[in-house]
Design a protein that fits this description.
Elements (H helix, E strand, L loop, with lengths): L26 H9 L8 H15 L4 H19 L21 H11 L11 H16 L2 H6 L1 E4 L2 E4 L1
Antiparallel strand pairs: 1-2
Helix pairs in contact: 1-2, 2-4, 4-5
């Protein structure tokens, strides 16, 4: 299945430096954000979906990009330490307790991907992405979306 033995480990764990490129919360924190409680025995499927979403997000960047960003951050820290200056990196957390990153929709897509499709034993991406498109369309009709439909015109704000 994999062309190189090293590829078998891809997507099994995060890489050093992934956290610098992807907003990250541990599986338990995401679970609490989505469900409002700590996980229990009956929550294995949801936890597995959260793990897959987290790993997919981390592996959304090429390894070379992750490595170069990590090296640049380490070099910046080392260089500024010579003059006792703290690097100007923005805080990487903690994040608010809510589903700010869209985990619920990503979990729905992971669950849909595990279903059998019409022509294969899995769903095609074009079928799965319809869930996201549906959510996006519904969101556009919601109060939060309307609140963001502001046009800036000098010092005056108007909405349609």
């Amino acid at each position: 299945m994999y062309s190189h033995p090293k590829d078998a480990l891809r997507h099994a764990c995060g890489r050093e430096g992934d956290h610098l490129l992807t907003p990250f919360q541990c599986d338990t924190c995401v679970f609490r954000n989505v469900k409002g409680r700590s996980p229990g025995e009956g929550d294995r499927l949801l936890l597995a979906c959260i793990r897959q979403v987290n790993l997919d997000a981390l592996w959304g960047r090429e390894t070379a990009t992750v490595n170069s960003t990590y090296r640049a951050a380490k070099q910046t820290i080392k260089t500024l330490a010579q003059v006792s200056v703290i690097p100007p990196f923005p805080p990487l957390g903690p994040f608010p307790v809510d589903d700010r990153f869209g985990y619920t929709m990503a979990i729905a897509m992971v669950l849909k991907s595990r279903e059998a499709g019409r022509y294969a034993d899995y769903q095609q991406y074009e079928t799965i992405r319809k869930l996201r498109a549906g959510f996006s369309n519904i969101y556009q009709a919601s109060l939060p979306a309307v609140d963001h439909l502001k046009i800036m015109g000098g010092t005056r704000r108007s909405s349609f």
